[in-house]
Amino acid sequence: MNNMALPLSRRDKGAFNPKAAKDCITFGFPEADRRVGGLPKSALHEFFPAQSQDGAAVTGFALALMLRAQERGQTIVWVRQDMVAHEYGALYAPGLAAFGADPSSIIQVRVSDSLSAVRAAHEALQCSALGAVALEIWGGPKVLDLTATRRLLHRATLSQTPCFLMRMSGEPAPNAAFSRWRVRAAASRAMAANAPGHPAFEISLLRHRGGVPPQRFRMEWDCDLRIFRETPLSRALAPSIARRPAAPDVAEAQRKAG
Amino acid sequence: MWQRRSEKPDERPLVIVAKVKGALRVVHTDWRARELGLSPGLTLADARARIPDLKIADEDAAADVAMLDRIADWCDRYTPLVGMDGADGLILDITGCAHLLGGEAALRTDLMERLMRLGFTAQSAVAATPDAARALARFTGGGICPPGADYEAIKSLPVAALGVEDEIVTALARAGLKTIHDLAIRPRAPLAARFGTTLLDRLLRTLGEIDHPVSPRRPLPDLAAERRFAEPVSLADQIAAALQGLAHELTPHLEERGTGGRHFEASFFRADGAVRRISILSGHPLRNAKTLAKLFSEKLDALTDPLDPGFGFDLIRLSVTATEAFLSVQSDFGGGTDNGEEVAELIDRLGVRFGTAHVQRLVIRDSHVPERAACTAPAIAPAGRTAPWRAQPGEPPIRPISLFEPPEPVETVAEVPDGPPIRFLWRRVMHDVTHAEGPERIAPEWWRCTKGLTRDYFRVEDSEGRRFWLYRGGMYGHDSEHPRWFVHGLFA
User: Fold this and answer.
1) Does B183 share its domain with B303?
2) A54·B466 Cβ contact <8 A
3) In terms of CA atoms, which chain B residue is nearest residue A255?
4) For chain B, which ranges sit under pLDDT 70?
5) Which of A36, A214, A237, B492 could pair covalently with A199 via S-S, beta carbons 3.0-4.6 A apart?
6) Total number of domains constituting chain B
């Protein structure tokens, strides 16, 4: 990212300088990384669902970023409020493994209210040996105000651990988060026999402390390589005749029956 | 018998009554009633006839036992070996503890004074064996038996002091054996043959010829350090400082033994008799004083029922009740081991603050039934084996990242007999399915339950791009006319 293009005031306020790759979380495909730059590791990143039904998409997208940030063998501490599990289900270990995570490296802290959740995250950010700290809360606008997030940010900077805030309900409010994203589930690229494809997300960058303007992306997550891939924003059109694949085999089209 | 002195002394004699053999009988009497001639076993009518002006209370055996428990808890301040002796007595093993309070006499005086201040009338005796002490306390005025002079003290006590049943006492009386001395000088085998082995057992125990140690009420700690305060402390800072000092005292001993503590307990003894215990569990052997003090301060902060000092604590004790060998692992160049320890300490801190059951590991189990394939285990316990999850490379995830427990019912329109859903209504929102994969047939584990519906799972995506894991419970026609559909989980 070209730092010189930023206005002077932004530069002085500690605008984001692209540091070494180790300190950044990248998406894995050049288009997004070029437009956003890397997300710094010792900072707070906030995620909102576009609608209430997009809760699982927020969880998935944040988990994907956590996996990008996690180094070999590092533990992730996931603080989850009970209300979130009530609405969207409990974290399912085989599903996490299928998504690309290692469930044995995740420690889940179940709390009953948002204040305890923030306290738990605060406690967890003291440990510098973690890969990431996830905080999934329901509502609670006052609990994550500027002061509280500043304290979390301070801890995150000292321990060099990224903190991912997933706000499952409630509106964005000003706080010390470095970047703010709105996540929405996107239609996936269908696989054979009209099966749903890889997890796909449509994300909007709402706010970025480094001065990156708001923009939208559409990407899908590759669970094996643990990397994001670009998918075009518009609906997939039928390919031209020259590139259209031959009619699928009849045997392939038959539904798999147990 | 224990009897609490009330604030305004009531001059009437007090008796405690209970229904025995169909009539209300006197069970216990106070000293005034005893002086006037009343004794246990008398019917209430007889007692009233003799002394019209009588104060009567109902027997509450449960409350008596509870009170004795609390006194025993409080006696923990003298020694950890406190045993119950019937429904109205306690035996304390003060071997090795007496010097902490300045000798046996000082300990006994302290105990009696405190009991008197709490309002109890008690008798106590110190002797070389628990049974001798018991006999002396119950059948004499009490006192301290000089070491070696046990036999002299107990030989003139009646045989009832051995603690045997009344029938044996009567039988012994008929045989002309009235005191312990009479029994002691007789040959042992005929005694056992005529009166039973229990009598012989008790006799030998009282004489000190066989050893019958006190069975403690609470598990004995491996290590304990305590502080007594002449001026009871009640401020949080003082308590924290005391705990820190005790932690620093205790941990060198753990280091000497090459062990670390897994379970620590802090006991706070109030000046007015109440005892409060706070315990800490650690996932790995701990012997760092600072970490221990920090864990305790966190626990005290996180208590739902905060520590109430009342008039102050005059004794604070820190004990280690479970230890484990401490394996000093050499750290490698990458600093990998340090990370493991830091994370373990974090798990301990989170467990202390939020409860060890709420800090969980996610474990995959080897089961094809989805809800049994995953479970949570407390992170503080050592990590068990987790079954590996084999995913097909290049394929999207076939299991959702979140699971509903229990699955949520949906109304579905689907092709009969085993087609994927076309439309479904969930939480009052209609979803139109555009992509679907399935069915994945999962039958219940026949070796666990014979009844259970086979489920056909479908991975579906709706027109908005959201992915769900639905299943149909049962097969059309086979299990029911209208099998029910459920959403079991959500994909990312």
Assistant:
1) no
2) yes
3) B438
4) 1-10, 328-339
5) B492
6) 4
Kindly provide the ipTM of the predicted complex, given to two decimals: 0.80
Residue-wise pLDDT tens digits, A112-168:
988 899 999 999 999 888 989 999 999 767 788 888 889 999 999 999 999 999 998
The yes-or-no verdict on residue A194 having pLDDT over 80 is: yes
Tell which phi-psi region holds residue B437, choosing left (phi > 0), alpha (psi between -120 and 50) or beta: beta
Asked, for residue B396, whether it belongs to a domain, the answer is no
What's residue B470's pLDDT?
Answer: 93
- Give helix B236-257 / helix B289-302 axis angle, nearest 10°: 140
- Cα three-residue angle A233-A238-A240, rounded to 5 degrees: 115
Same-domain pairing of B229 and B282: yes
In this structure, are residues B93 and B79 in contact, taking their beta carbons and an 8 Å threshold?
Answer: yes
The parent domain of residue A94 ranges over 40-234
Q: Which domain holds residue B431?
A: 402-490
Give residue-wise pLDDT tens across range B330-365: 555 554 456 678 888 899 999 988 988 999 999 998
Sign of the CA dihedral with B56 first, then B62, B68, and B71 last: negative
In terms of domains, do B98 and B188 share one? yes
Contact check, Cβ <8 Å, B465/A187: yes
Residues B125 and B194 reside in one and the same domain: yes
Q: Given CB atoms, is A236 within the 8 Å cutoff of chain B?
A: no
Q: Per the domain annotation, does B381 fall within a domain?
A: no
A229 interface with B at CB cutoff 8 Å: no
Cβ of residue B391 closer than 8 Å to a chain A Cβ: yes
- Which of B147, B173, B207 is the C-terminal boundary of a domain? B207
Q: Is B363 within the bounds of a domain?
A: no
Q: Name the nearest CA neighbour of B133 among B100, B115, B113, B107.
A: B107
CATH number, domain containing residue A219: 3.40.50.300
> Is-contact B232 B313, C-beta < 8 A?
yes
Number of independent structural domains in chain A:
1
Distance CA B4, CA B14 (A): 11
pTM of the shown model: 0.73
Q: Establish if A185 belongs to a structural domain.
A: yes
Tell me how far apart the alpha carbons of residues A47 and B20 are, in angstroms, rounded to a whole number.
Answer: 73
Whether residues B198 and B84 share a domain: the answer is: yes
